[in-house]
Amino acid sequence: MTVPMIRLNSGHDIPQLGFGVFRVPADEAERAVSDALEVGYRHIDTAAIYGNEEGVGAAIAKSGIAREELFITTKLWNDRQVGEEPHDAIRESLARLGLDYVDLYLTHWPAPKQGAYSNAWAKLIEIRDAGLARSIGVSNHLPEHLDRIVKDTGVVPAIDQIELHPAYQQRDVLGWAEENGMRIESWGPLGQGKYPLFENPAVVEAAEAHEVTPAQAVIRWHLQKGVIVFPKSTRKERMAENFDVFGFELTDDEVARIDGIDPLDGSGRVGTHPLEFD
Ligand code: NAD
After folding, report:
1. At a CB cut-off of 8 Å and minimum separation 6, what does 108 contact?
2. Which residues line ligand 1 (CB under 6 A)?
3. From ligand 1's centre to the CA of 192, what distance in Å?
4. What positions are marked as the site Lowers pKa of active site Tyr (predicted)?
5. Is 50 part of the annotated catalytic residue set?
6. In the chain, how many domains are there?
7. Does residue 213 lie in a domain region?
8. What is the CATH classification number for the domain harbouring 13?
9. Lower CB density within 10 Å: C or N end of the chain?
10. Domain range for 13
């Protein structure tokens, strides 16, 4: 199975489908990532705050897979945005991961009440220039935050990683990305199991038509939207199921019906709103 690659504004390529490790406990991370690598995933999404970078690093080291075949993302936590802190934070993350560089480093949240996200972004640019991250980006940034960091630095993030699934599509952020040559990553792509996506008739009927599971239909929807996606599961059979999404294609009509799931009033959101997170 070949996972499509997407070219970022940094000139580097990212596998469009990856594996996320949010809420994978530290003592399970090595096993889960080893399973994911065996299934075929080459793109792993972690974060300092997940507390499992060591487990991710141990699985990478054990795998014997060449570093250049892997795409590893980690994120700067909110309490490290000020002053020169991001420089310390990336070095600590790299030490835990056992790596010389990450493929992608993201500012985890704008945390606007702290007023430090633009400083964090300026430091990420220095981190990229120092060779510690091949590409840099942000997460949970709304157009107002993106406008601000680009105005302050002139540098457009390669990626904004946002909550995105059929019930919460954030079309304003996608519009900003399209206009500015930034790519979008979907977090909570399956609604984190909190939104009843798998019972929605648009999803169920698309899945039945292609003899796949509702989760596979939703992952396929993300891929056909052109966003980057990394569903999480600690169960190997589900990792394999979520990776097995290249043998069918949703029709335009099926995509349009799934698009219609978003109530467009923000009620489909399952995570915290970026303006409220500190
Ligand atoms: P997700 O939408 O991937 O949902 C994961 C849950 O869906 C699992 O715990 C499981 O219960 C269920 N699931 C997975 N595969 C399934 C299948 N085939 N059939 C049925 N149920 C299935 O949610 P997520 O883990 O929050 O998001 C994916 C990744 O996004 C995370 O692991 C993390 O890397 C990233 N993330 C980033 C942020 C951020 O603020 N940047 C926030 C949350 C998550």
Report:
1. 47, 48, 49, 75, 76, 77, 78, 139, 140
2. 20-22, 45, 108, 139-140, 161, 187-193, 215, 230-233, 238, 241-242
3. 5
4. 75
5. yes
6. 1
7. no
8. 3.20.20.100
9. N
10. 5-191
